[in-house]
Design goal:
By secondary structure, the protein is mainly beta. It has helices spanning about 1-20, 55-65; strands at about 25, 35-40, 75-80, 80-85, 90-95, 100-105, 115-120, 130, 135-140, 145-150, 160-165, 170-175, 180-185, 190-195, 210, 220, 225-230, 235-240, 255-260, 265-270, 275-280, 285-290, 300-305, 310-315, 320-325. The strands form six sheets. Strands 1-2-25-24-23 form a five-stranded antiparallel sheet, with no helix packed on it. A four-stranded antiparallel sheet has the order 3-4-5-6, with no helix packed on it. Strands 7-8-9-10 form a four-stranded antiparallel sheet, with no helix packed on it. The N and C termini lie far apart (about 55 Å).
């Protein structure tokens, strides 16, 4: 009887795997050529391909350690072998390190814990920068999660999104309350602020996240102006697109913003629970996602990060998970352009 059950299970599992391979979840759907593929979800170390050794599992069981699981993931940053996730419920940042098969938990400095960690960025040396919107500070750690120093200023009101320029010693800090972008050195020396509260070109209303292209231009989710603004590295206005509306191509509450290797712009919207793709002119290319808890559906799609290899990470906050997608190079000569 047990053998029959085992054989039945194996047959069902094999059928499942075959069906999974055949029925890939992609956008857009046929007859259009697929450009984005769903890869998986992750909410704990194992799902980020990090497995505890037998002895680590035994030790955790003996001492009663709780298993790590995301509860309210907010910001996300990624490298080839690492995924960094802020969790506003546990007031922590998790570093899921596939190469070392370990999870680093960062909970604050030597003297104070996080109150509301939002976004993460890393410099070329691997130092980790974390914004805390309530403490109004940026905490800096080395690549192993050891606390280094704090970047603070009485100018900071509510720092949220972070970005580091590739070719300059600059940290860009989005301030949701002052509706500005503050620019410092990586050591925290204040340089200048960009913008002010308003709805004009180069002005912001509760901006949230930010990304930087290879030319040093910055892309900002100007959330309560329901648009995206593009500026040069010194804050000079270049272009804007988007407006409040219910149709695709419009925004309700744009949050996460990221560029792929083709410099197309991906914007998450917490109200629409989708990701919209635009070219640099602001022309809509495609949309994926909708409200729900199934694969490819979101409940509060917050932040987004894209690796150069086309892997896309999205914080699906109320579903307590990260969703992972892949940009498909079906035709490299004309891949989503």
């Amino acid at each position: 009887m047990n053998k029959i059950l085992l054989i039945s299970f194996l047959l069902l599992y094999t059928s499942y795997l075959n069906a999974k391979n055949i029925n890939k979840l992609v956008w857009p759907q046929a007859p259009d050529e697929p450009r984005i593929e769903f890869i998986g979800v992750a909410s704990n170390p194992a799902q980020f391909d990090i497995e505890k050794s037998f002895f680590s599992k035994a030790y955790s069981f003996i001492v009663g350690e709780e298993e790590i699981a995301l509860s309210l993931p907010f910001g996300v940053y990624a490298q080839e072998q690492r995924v960094y996730v802020s969790d506003v419920s546990s007031k922590s940042v998790y570093v899921f390190d596939k190469a070392e098969e370990e999870t680093i938990i960062i909970e604050g400095s030597d003297n104070e814990t996080f109150l509301y960690p939002i976004d993460i960025a890393c410099d070329p040396k691997g130092n980790i920068y974390i914004s805390d919107s309530i403490r109004a500070k940026i905490y800096v750690f080395n690549k192993d999660g050891k606390f280094n120093y704090i970047i603070s200023s009485n100018i900071f009101k509510r720092p949220v999104g972070l970005a580091i320029s590739d070719n300059e010693d600059k940290l860009y800090i989005v301030d949701a309350v002052s509706s500005q972008i503050h620019v410092t050195t990586l050591r925290g020396k204040f340089l200048y602020s960009i913008g002010k509260n308003g709805s004009g070109d180069g002005e912001f209303n509760r901006p949230t996240f930010i990304d930087i292209d290879n030319s040093g231009n910055i892309y900002v989710s100007d959330s309560m102006n329901h648009r995206v603004q593009i500026l040069d590295g010194n804050g000079k206005f270049i272009h804007k697109f988007g407006q409040l509306g219910q149709n695709i191509g419009n925004f309700a509450n744009p949050r996460g913003i990221a560029l792929d290797k083709n410099n197309n712009i991906y914007v998450s919207d917490t109200m629409f629970n989708n990701i919209q793709l635009f070219n640099k002119k602001g022309e809509l290319l495609m949309v994926f996602g909708s409200y729900g808890d199934k694969f490819g559906e979101f409940s509060l799609a917050e932040d987004i990060y894209i690796l150069q290899n086309g892997t896309i990470y999205v914080t699906d906050t109320n579903n307590k998970r990260i969703q992972i997608f892949k940009l498909l190079d079906v035709d490299k000569k004309r891949s989503i352009k």
